[in-house]
Design goal:
Layout (H helix, E strand, L loop, with lengths): L12 H10 L18 E6 L15 E6 L5 E7 H4 L4 E7 L4 E7 L6 E6 L5 E5 L9 E6 L5 E5 L2 E5 L5 E2 L6 E2 L12 E6 L5 E6 L5 E6 L10 E6 L6 E9 L2 E7 L7 E8 L4 E11 L8 E7 L4 E6 L6 E8 L4 E4 L14 E7 L1
Antiparallel strand pairs: 1-2, 1-25, 2-3, 4-5, 5-6, 6-7, 8-9, 9-10, 10-11, 10-12, 13-14, 14-15, 15-16, 17-18, 18-19, 19-20, 21-22, 22-23, 23-24
Length: 353
């Protein structure tokens, strides 16, 4: 199935801002066929990915979707190679019942968020704010209040459901102090905990390769850094995370050494507001299944975890089943769930309708 020609090419930044302000969808061609909607899908972005410093192949710069019921590839939703050369999708999340939101990196500037229909029929620019999107984008995640958290290399921004910056005059999270310091150079992912606090991954050199928890209201002072935990090895980098139950999450780490590539389960204690190190458990250490992880997604309906590895020319997605009681990840099947040569450098995944 062909990709949808949904984005207008060659527009100036001013023109794109005008389109965003008016919220005008791009018109799809009459002969294009929409991707059929079914029960549950795995949305996959191939873009400028990060795999813990491991060399990756050039991104394909597409968004595709797979039917989780059959495992079949449904189609290509967006092909940025032909529709918007220079654009690279780096994060993907839910927007509403009909659309997803895509964080799009562009090394020449013009970074933006795109809103794309889940059936693949069309899409349009959602946000082109040069202040909010000033530095390299890493991820975008939907929050419980309808807004979105955008992780950049050096900080995290929050926008409301109405696309306004929160707070208006500064970044939501920037330069947190100890014990979160120094977590200001290599933010990778962001997740919301059950009490609204924000979990971030920071992929810097030791001792700053860590995961941190920040106040639900953002970072305004040292008290807003509520917890921090060092990576399991001095060279492992946190690259992706998924919430698997109430205040329990798993983090994928990656790095050049075999021992750097693992998945760790953590419990967040809402009473002490701490990431509990005593219950941290290594739940996946098999490098044959995961090496150079770059993205993760969780299917809550079936307790399945999808982990993408993106070392150059060995890209794949593995499917695991999560047992919350035993805290184990068990590989599903005897082969990678997805191994597609045209999905190089997997930058983001999302499970949804």
């Amino acid at each position: 199935m062909s990709a949808k020609n949904i984005f207008v090419l060659g527009l100036s930044s001013a023109a794109l801002f005008a389109l965003t302000a008016c919220n005008l969808p791009f018109v799809k061609k009459e002969d294009e066929v929409a991707v059929t909607t079914a029960a549950n899908y795995l949305y996959i972005a191939s873009g400028a990915c990060y795999a813990g410093g491991i060399a990756t192949a050039p991104a394909t710069n597409v968004i595709v979707k797979y039917d989780l019921n059959s495992g079949a590839r449904v189609g290509t939703m967006v092909d940025y190679r032909t529709q918007a050369p220079g654009d690279s999708p780096v994060g993907i999340t839910s927007k509403d019942a009909d659309t997803i939101l895509v964080a799009v990196e562009n090394s020449n500037g013009g970074r933006h968020l795109d809103q794309v229909r889940r059936d693949g029929s069309n899409g349009w620019p959602y946000l082109l704010n040069t202040t909010i999107l000033a530095a390299s984008l890493r991820d975008v995640v939907q929050l419980s209040d309808g807004g979105h958290l955008i992780t950049r290399t050096t900080l995290a921004e929050k926008i409301s459901a109405f696309r306004t910056r929160i707070p208006a005059a500064s970044a939501f999270i920037s330069a947190p102090a100890a014990p979160c310091a120094t977590s200001t150079t290599s933010l990778t992912f962001g997740k919301e905990l059950s009490n609204g606090k924000i979990l971030l991954g920071h992929a810097a050199t030791a001792p700053n390769n860590k995961i941190i928890a920040i106040s639900a209201t953002g970072y305004a002072g040292a008290s807003d850094c509520v917890s921090a935990r060092a990576a399991p090895t001095t060279t492992a980098k946190p690259v992706a995370a998924a919430s698997v139950s109430a205040d329990k999450f798993i983090v994928a780490y990656a790095g050049a050494l075999a021992g750097d590539n693992l998945v760790v389960s953590y419990q967040y204690n809402t009473g002490t507001t701490a990431i509990d190190s005593a219950t941290a458990t290594n739940v996946m250490t098999n490098n044959a299944y995961m090496f150079g992880a770059s993205a993760m997604a969780y299917d809550a309906a079936n307790s399945d975890v999808y982990i993408a590895s993106s070392p150059a020319f060995a890209e794949k997605i593995e499917k695991f089943h999560w047992n919350d009681t035993a805290q184990t990840l068990t590989r599903v099947g005897d082969a990678p769930y997805i191994h597609a040569p045209d999905l190089a450098c997997i930058s983001g995944m999302y499970v949804g309708p």
